[in-house]
UniProtKB/TrEMBL annotation:
Keywords: Membrane, Transmembrane, Transmembrane helix. One of its GO terms (cellular component) is plasma membrane. This is Urea transporter. It is found in: Membrane. Belongs to the sodium:solute symporter (SSF) (TC 2.A.21) family. GO terms for molecular function: urea transmembrane transporter activity. It comes from the Eukaryota. It is a multi-pass membrane protein. Its main location: membrane. InterPro entries: DUR, Na/Glc_symporter_sf, Na/solute_symporter. Residues 540-572 are annotated as: Disordered. PANTHER family: PTHR46154, SOLUTE SYMPORTER FAMILY TRANSPORTER (AFU_ORTHOLOGUE AFUA_6G03200).
Length: 678
């Protein structure tokens, strides 16, 4: 890495990375604690029971879930503009589209719909695997689940610490530990709902800062200031150093071989990190059943604006400003560490640009970190502690374990980030490598949750064989092309080979064995997991008490949300869990996801790739304007819509606060008295 530019004092780094002195880290942690206290005092939701802690009582509305998806899916890598420097405008497109549509949140909407249909009361996706296929499958897929969390968390720590160190000179070691610290505190206190509230506040500020950068670059900056000038600068850079593999070496073309290869790698890697990451399952679990699909579609579409517009703005600025006296020279290692955006922000706006980027990065890293913390805490609590150590754990024990595991995983993620840092693995390398390790689990996991015919051993063997094939393909290709050196800079072909082998072999073995030797699984077994109306034994047998007890059922109060006013919520929840409605939601998710996939991955980029078009000023300006409109629309859907849908809860909290101001204690939420039977 070239010498750090350090445009901010070290104190800014410590402040942002969680406050050795008062800083934004501590400010946000204190703010989240305040929100959690208000939630406990003025609403029926108390974070003092395990269901609320890990699943937010499965009651969260779609706007807030969408904002949580945007936030959890915005990593340091998303903002680091890694793909853009070498590839031009195709990089942001492939990054955004590959992680929005093909790989991730939109297709995941289908899985989320199936989750609500086939296991509406599960806490984790691994509980479903365990109930369906038993211990061996549970342990094998736990490997993929935890590996995903460790890889994603390490990328967050690596990307966050590299930028903080670069901008402020703060010690990377200190940054690795301080970044998760404040997050651990508010996640322990507030649980899942607090991470969603944190996601919301962070997403709001994130969009504000991104739009500030966009308007600086394309409207006010004396160095660039308009799409026309940006186009001119990019063409000048291309004429002195053309991009290999791009049409006429231009940056303003979708005809980019490296861009296309990156697109494929990106699609596979993001399949892996969303399908096997409990963080995204957890948002589906926390969501109200009737609106889960809407939340994922909204979140996916809103998220696209972040990598696309941000990289089209600061990533391209990092190229356009080459040679500018304020722009530092970036090495390949700097690019892989995710530093182009920071360098461009400093060159454009000096220390205020660097500070804004630091805040942006802090927001992205902390909210994605909170998602990973609560995700791993849930896996360790329900899939290790409850399943293997204390099957009869009480609610209090589960809650306590959830708290311990948040703290424990905070330490693990700091150490993992540090280890990767010291062995020289960069965020960019890990980003392109993640599909090699995790890709083989994607199809087997999707089949487990959606398809009654999925073959247990086919899926287990497929995921292990794909894992081995991915590693072998990556090693063999690296050795053949680079004389055996496993370089820390990103190499396209070995990564492509490893990613394709991993997801391909895993998917083929799982699907073919399931067609030849189909299972005939009854999803009633997974519907019984943690279901308050059905007794479920560890052996996987579900006893539907409702059926045994005849037509006149006296339903138990909803055990999943003991803090919530039982009967009303239970009735709403049962209505939303109507299988006909959930099947219709699945069909809607399938058609809309596949339609969007076709448009964003095939119909838009491929004709542009084959046509070899190089954009003129008008074309490039239209490209930028589409990004800006998309960003505004996204901001409305994940910033204003959640406020609108929660207007009743907000006014309830407001009334509670006002009452408390006049008579202390009178505003506290009081659950309605249960009416006694007539
Ligand atoms: N979440 C991603 N792939 O930026």
């Amino acid at each position: 890495m070239s010498s750090a530019s350090n445009v901010l004092p070290q104190g800014a780094g410590y402040g942002s990375a969680q406050g050795l002195r008062p800083g934004i880290g501590l400010f946000f942690s204190a703010f989240m604690l305040l929100l959690t206290a208000m939630q406990a005092r003025y609403t029926p939701f108390s974070p003092r029971n395990s269901e609320e802690f890990s699943s937010a009582s499965r009651s969260v509305k779609p706007g807030l879930i969408a904002s949580g998806i945007v936030s959890a899916w915005t990593w340091a890598a998303t903002l680091a503009s890694i793909p853009i420097c070498p590839k031009g405008i195709s990089g942001p497109w492939w990054y955004g589209a590959g992680a929005t549509i093909q790989a991730s949140v939109l297709l995941f909407a289908m899985l989320a719909a199936k989750l609500k249909l086939n296991a509406p009361y599960a806490h984790t996706w691994l509980e479903i695997v365990g109930a369906r296929w038993g211990k061996v499958a549970h342990l094998v897929f736990m490997f993929f689940g935890l590996a995903t969390n460790i890889i994603v968390s390490s990328m967050l720590i690596l990307g966050g610490s590299a930028t903080v160190t670069d901008l402020t000179g703060m010690s990377t070691l200190a940054a690795c530990f301080l970044i998760p610290l404040g997050v651990v505190i508010y996640v322990i206190v507030g649980g899942m709902r607090s991470t969603l509230l944190c996601d919301y506040t962070h997403t709001t500020v994130l969009f504000a800062i991104i739009l500030t950068f966009v308007f600086t670059v394309y409207a006010t900056s004396p160095k660039i200031g308009s799409p026309k000038r940006m186009h001119e600068l990019l063409e000048t850079v291309a004429s002195s150093s053309p991009v290999p593999g791009n049409a006429h070496g231009s940056y303003v073309t979708m005809r980019s071989k490296d861009g296309l290869i990156f697109g494929v790698i990106n699609i596979i890697g993001n399949f892996a990190t969303i399908f096997t990451d409990q963080a995204y399952w957890q948002r589906a679990i926390a969501s109200r059943p009737g609106t889960t699909v809407k939340a994922y579609l909204l979140g996916g579409l809103a998220w696209f604006a972040i990598p696309f517009t941000f990289a089209t703005t600061l990533g391209l600025s990092a190229v356009a400003l080459r040679g500018d006296p304020d722009m530092r020279t970036l090495s390949a290692a700097d690019v892989s560490a995710g530093l182009p955006a920071a360098a461009a922000a400093s060159a454009l706006m000096g220390s205020s640009g660097a500070a804004a980027l630091l805040v942006l990065l802090f927001l992205a890293v902390t909210s994605a970190t909170s998602a990973e913390l609560i995700a791993v805490s849930s896996l360790l609590t329900y899939d290790v502690y409850k399943k293997y150590i204390n099957p009869n754990a009480t609610d209090n024990q589960l809650l306590q374990m959830g708290h311990y595991m948040v703290g424990f995983y905070g330490l693990v993620m700091a150490l993992a980030g540090l280890i990767f840092y010291f062995i020289g693995v960069s965020m960019g390398w890990l980003y392109t490598f993640m599909g090699v390790i995790l890709g083989s689990g994607v199809v087997p996991i999707a089949l487990c949750i959606t398809w009654s015919k999925a073959n247990k051993w086919g899926c287990i063997i497929g995921s292990l064989a794909g894992f081995a094939a991915g590693l072998i393909a990556w090693l063999v290709t690296t050795s053949a092309l680079y004389g055996g050196a496993i370089n820390v800079t990103v190499q396209n072909f070995p990564m492509l080979a490893g990613n394709l082998a991993s997801i391909g072999l895993g998917g083929i073995i799982a699907t073919v064995t399931s067609i030849i030797w189909p299972d005939n699984f009854d999803f009633e077994i997974t519907r019984a997991i943690n279901n308050p109306y059905v007794a479920f034994t560890n052996s996987g047998e579900a006893k539907d008490q409702d059926k045994n007890e005849g037509d006149e059922i006296e339903r138990k109060e909803v055990a999943t949300s003991p803090s919530v006013n039982g009967s009303t919520v239970a009735a709403e929840e049962q209505e939303e869990l109507d299988p006909l409605k959930l099947k219709a939601a699945f069909r809607f998710a399938a058609w809309s996801s596949l339609g969007l996939l076709l448009v964003l991955i095939i119909l838009i980029p491929l004709p542009l790739f084959f046509a070899q078009t190089i954009y003129g000023v008008a074309g490039y300006s239209a490209w930028v304007i589409i990004g800006i409109i998309w960003t505004f629309t996204s901001a409305f859907s994940v910033v204003f819509y959640p406020l609108w849908e929660s207007r009743e809860a907000l006014s309830q909290i407001g009334r509670g606060i006002i009452k408390d101001i006049f008579v202390n204690g009178s505003g506290r939420y009081v659950p309605p008295l249960k009416s006694s039977p007539a």
